[in-house]
Amino acid sequence: MRSALAGWDFGALFSRVRELTGLRQQDLGELTGLTQSTLSMLESGARRLRHIDTIMPVLERLEVPTEVLPMLLSRSNARAETRPPQISMPVKPLVEYEWESPLAIAERLNATTSSNVDDTTLSLLEHEVDDIVGSYEAAGPHRSAPRANRLRGFVQERLDGRQLPQQRRALFRLAAQASGLLGYMAVNAGREALAEAYCTETYELAREIGDQELMMWALGTRSLGAYYTGRFEQAARWAEAGISVNPRDPQAIRLLVNGAARALGKQGNAQGARRAIGKALELTGRVTVPSGLTSCIAFAPYSMARTLANAATAHVSLGDTGEVLAYAEQISPLVEESDSAWTQTLVSLDVATALLSDPQPDVEQAMAVGRRALDVRNGPPIRSVVQRAGELETQVSRWRNHPAVRDYREVLSVWRAEPLAREVAASARMTRLTESGGAEGAGRDRSPRISPRPPA
């Protein structure tokens, strides 16, 4: 009790009194004038008595002998004091705090702000992306893929280290772009599973940094991949998913005309295809788009020329010969002036196909355009070119004895024998089987292997 009084620990005092006497808190409350709840908080340590005017009446009612009270708690001193006395308590020896050294602070700061990449390196990597895009149509997917893969690996090595926040964001974007390039190349090379995996990686990396344009680009490339494997319903859904990220973003132009319009055209949905083309042209008029003819693999929004080229392809599926020829004529100067050999080839094949769809088909002219499209100088073959060249051959089969048709098929046979054409040709043949109701089922839709998370 003396120890409790010396330390002003009245909770311990009351607890000891009740222990010795067998009193309940209610009984002790009647003796001291304190409530049971107050006693309970005092004994648990949740509350302490600190005012002498409150303490002395309690000690008197408990009949605590004055001789056991510390001098500072005597009746005379208690009346004179207006605040609790300072009780002398044993003091623990001071333990000296071990301060950090200035060197330790400097080392920590250096580690926190250090980076394994600098702005010059980031600029060079961005230039590499632009260079791959610029040279893609001349090099083709098989020569460009190793270069893009090396870029992706180098960026990943940097990401495994330490960077400042803005540098890390830039690396995430570069990694997403490198994976996106590989995804697009995989589509052109007929590597469906790889294309889906790369596009999913692109989408997720872009999503981590909130890059909506790159997210939309990735979904557009997934739509392209589904289109060239005959999954037109899935292609339209991927396009719609991309548009929903931001319908007002210039990237939506590609999703509308290359994704939705072409897929809907293949399904025979003329109204839906024309509506998508109209929205793409309307958006083109409201936003800033590049001039000329953009590269097919570029991350930039579609130019007007590329939009019209894709609109022509959609109209081919609908049998709108007049629309196809009008679009082809409108973009012809830009296509001829550009370095985009593939676009020249694809537009020519679209025109040839449209000429055969006319009520009065011009077989001679169609085959002449088709033969020019297969000029070996038009760059290495890609899946879209192989597929459309094969579709044109299928369409002219009813005129197979026509001399112009025989000439086209002979040129096509030589063109397909090119080393780089053989691999994608096999894939294109499987696609034609799918579309025509072959062993895999006409246009059978398959769910994507990997679905992106909903846009943030």
TrEMBL record:
Residues 429-456 are annotated as: Disordered. Residues 18-69 form the HTH cro/C1-type domain. SMART domains: HTH_XRE. Transmembrane segments: none annotated. This is Helix-turn-helix domain-containing protein. It comes from Streptomyces polyasparticus. The lineage of its organism: Bacteria, Bacillati, Actinomycetota, Actinomycetes, Kitasatosporales.
